[in-house]
Write a structure and sequence with these properties.
four-stranded antiparallel beta sheet; Helicase, Ruva Protein, domain 3; N-terminal domain of MutM-like DNA repair proteins; about 280 residues; 2 domains; about 25% helix; 10 strands; binds zinc ion; alpha+beta
Length: about 280
């Protein structure tokens, strides 16, 4: 499943192909994915120039110029792939691929969205309605923005009954920290994931916020290297695996202290941690 680092990798890969180009055509092979696709509204993108490709949580936001400054919202769901074909203009667009659901044509570029499981989404907003779009309103803090720091974690954890790991994974508070990154961040910050979130001291919050950012940035950097030639997501790509310190390393020696890494299961999700150096 694409997580924040993968989506950010797609964003940085797509940006130079889309920004400054004008949409010449949109094609839809179906009228819904996870939710109905607002096809009539999206067709108004024809003739508009893409002005920016940004990201909010795991949504790619394609911004366009002109009246109302529309925005296309793209979510990759479980298995979505936002790929860009670099085309010679004289060659007609290739055949639809299996599980390809929509296309965006720009001069010399063809964006192809494929999604076998169809949990992805394609939506529409304008610059004025984007902030209140229902997909975005309940989203928590972006972890890579300056507002996310130890003070933020300390503040939001005070009245919580949940564990540190659950706090990190609560998308209403903080977006983008999935199961792998939560275990890795706790290890890096030397805190036990199952400890009560409200027991975190301010210094631990500082360490944990830095750890979250470091883990996500490493994953983005690794993704960027693997995907440098195209904008897309390879399902199951193991590009970050070599950098994992505890995730799926149960039974192996901790890289920091040598004690055996443990695995515990909470609500069906595995947590990996070291009893030797995480307190
Ligand atoms: Zn250890």
């Amino acid at each position: 499943m694409p997580e924040l680092p993968e989506v950010e990798t797609v964003r940085t890969g797509a940006e130079p192909h889309l920004v400054g180009r004008r949409v010449t055509e949109l094609e839809f092979a179906r009228d819904d994915l996870r939710w109905p696709i607002p096809i009539d509204e999206l067709r108004t993108l024809r003739g508009r120039t893409c002005t920016a490709v940004t990201r909010r949580s795991k949504y790619l936001l394609l911004h366009f110029g002109g009246r109302d400054r529309p925005v296309a919202l793209v979510h990759l769901g479980m298995s979505g792939r936002f790929a860009i074909d670099v085309q010679n203009r004289r060659v007609p667009p290739p055949e639809w691929r299996k599980h390809e659901h929509w296309r965006l044509h720009l001069p010399g570029r063809l964006v192809r969205y494929t999604d076998p499981r169809r949990f992805g989404a394609l939506g529409y907003a304008t610059a004025a309605t984007l902030a209140t779009h229902p997909w975005l309103t309940a989203l928590g803090q972006e972890p890579l923005e300056p507002e996310f720091d130890g003070a933020f974690l300390h503040r939001v954890s005070r009245r919580k009954k949940c564990s540190i790991k659950s706090l990190l994974m609560d998308g209403r508070l903080l977006v983008g920290v999935g199961n792998i990154y939560a275990s890795e961040s706790c290890w890096l910050a030397s805190v036990r994931p199952r400890r009560a979130a409200k027991s975190l001291k301010i210094k631990e919050c500082d360490a944990l916020a830095s750890a979250v950012q470091q883990v996500l940035r490493s994953a983005i950097a690794a993704g960027g290297t693997s995907f440098r030639d195209f904008a897309g997501v390879d399902e199951g790509a193991g590009y970050f695996a070599r950098e994992l310190n505890v995730y799926e390393r149960d039974g192996e020696a901790c890289r920091r202290c040598g004690v055996t890494v443990r695995r515990t299961v909470e609500v069906g999700r595995s947590t990996y941690w070291c009893a030797g150096c995480q307190v």
